[in-house]
Design goal:
alpha+beta, 10% strand, three-stranded antiparallel beta sheet, 21 helices, Malonyl-CoA decarboxylase, five-stranded mixed beta sheet
């Protein structure tokens, strides 16, 4: 109710401002990039609250009139024409050099801020401004790869969105069958890990006693989940996704559940890419589950490995013998042949251990983005699961491999520091043993001690 009241109030202010600006006349004609840039200049230069709110709404409305070339021209203008005030910045630099002080440093800081940051703040004041800026950044991301000069604008938008979408503003809500249909539709649409096929499939994921789903929302976007996580309550750590999603499975009574399995995490807003919510989401959901179900003592993921098949095909860490065995992945219905799966397992498990523990990008980062996410959160690589995902997608992207990351609460900070400071992959002995030669080395170490 409060949120709706303030939204209506801002809308009223905006409409009155429009009336003042237009003298009661009709709406402005459609904008092109040049006229929209001029309107932005007027917005960032003006001081009136009502007129500014109305003008911000006009800018956002006018933006919708632009085609792809118009959006590119508009974004380019924001880069070139809405940077720092050079004269003001030069004076602040001279003043600082002449007499360094905290006040001078503050003046220098504000003088160096690009004018487009203030423009974006003022656009955000318009009714519905926040979701429209998120959508605008989606358009910017579509142009960024081919137009790297737009990166300066993207940095400024991300800087502001990171402040507006920080953890303090986010609201955790449980998603269940009583959740409004428009939100449930988005859960179906944006599920990015294991497709939700229909409403019955969705109900099986959120309604039974051993299923949970939580999402983060922002007050400015109350009907749009930003990120959501699906959880299965089980007795033990699972190694495959199919039993968790089976139509005819028997639900686990809550009093027998000891493990919470985070089996899918999906972002819904591409325009918020690069702004991390997942680490906060997992940690807060763990706390919610512990309060609701005190007997839960194990918190793990059952995670996909979306880039593993691509790495298998290109890695130089595979021997010629490995490559000959890996050709079996091209056999139709290979997952149904016990002899083929056994032969592949002997090659793929050691390569998977190398992929997670040793392989790096040219910049020294772990190759797998899911691994970077969970290890950065303080999880431990617990288990590599052969034949974990037999779906067509699982075969195509990960050669059926899935992994468990274990969130042991007392070790999270230590694991995070090890990964963040030293790049160390904290892994169980079971995973380390899969490395070629590592099992023999660990046995020799135990015998010698």
């Amino acid at each position: 109710m409060a949120n709706a009241f303030f939204t209506d109030l801002i809308t009223t202010i905006s409409e009155r401002g429009r009336t003042l600006l237009r003298g009661g006349g009709s709406a402005v004609d459609k904008h092109d990039a040049k006229s929209l840039t001029e309107l932005c200049e007027a917005l960032v230069s003006g001081a009136g609250e009502a007129s500014g709110t109305a003008m911000a709404r006009d800018v956002l409305d006018g933006y919708h009139d632009l085609d792809a070339e118009g959006r590119k021209a508009f974004f380019t203008a924001l880069v070139h024409d809405f940077g720092p005030d050079n004269a003001r910045l030069a004076k602040a630099i001279d003043d600082w050099r002449a007499a360094p002080s905290d006040e001078g440093a503050s003046a220098l800081h504000f003088a160096s801020e690009p004018r487009r940051q203030e423009l974006i703040r003022r656009l955000n004041r318009a009714p519905g401004g926040t979701p429209e800026l998120v959508a605008m950044r989606t358009d910017l991301l579509d142009l960024l790869k081919a137009n790297p000069e737009l990166a300066a604008l993207d940095r400024d938008i991300v800087h502001l969105l990171s402040s507006w979408f920080n953890r303090g503003f986010l609201v955790l809500r449980k998603i269940d069958w009583s959740t409004p249909a428009n939100i449930l539709e988005q859960i179906i649409r944006y599920e990015a890990v294991h497709e939700i096929h229909d409403w019955d499939d969705l109900r099986r994921r959120i309604d039974p006693v051993d299923r949970r789903c939580y999402a983060f929302f922002h007050p400015a976007m109350p009907d749009a989940p930003l990120i959501f996580v699906e959880i299965a309550l089980t007795e033990t750590i699972p190694g495959a996704i199919a039993p968790l999603l089976a139509v005819d499975r028997a639900p686990v009574p809550a009093d027998r559940a000891r493990t919470a399995v985070f089996y899918s995490i999906s972002n819904t807003q591409r325009g918020l890419g690069g702004i991390s919510f997942g680490n906060f989401l997992i940690k807060q959901v763990v706390e919610e589950l512990r309060r609701e179900l005190p007997k839960l003592d194990t918190f793990v993921t059952l995670s996909p490995v979306p880039g593993f098949m691509g790495w298998l095909k290109s890695t130089e860490d595979a021997t010629e013998e490995d490559r000959n065995v890996l050709k079996l992945l091209n056999e139709p219905r290979w997952v149904e042949d016990v002899s083929i799966t056994a032969e592949l397992r002997s090659v793929i498990e050691p390569l998977a251990a190398h992929y997670f523990l040793k392989a790096r990008t040219s910049k020294g980062k772990l190759i797998d983005p899911v691994a970077r996410f969970h290890l950065g959160n303080g999880a431990r690589l617990e288990r590599i699961n052969w034949l974990g995902d037999l779906s067509a997608k699982g075969q195509r992207e990960s050669a059926t491999v899935m992994v468990n990351y274990l969130y042991r609460l007392e070790d999270i900070e230590k694991n995070h520091e090890a990964y963040a400071n030293d790049g160390e992959v904290v892994a169980s002995s079971a995973v380390k043993k899969l490395l070629r030669g590592e099992g023999r080395r660990l046995l020799d170490m135990r015998l010698s001690s």
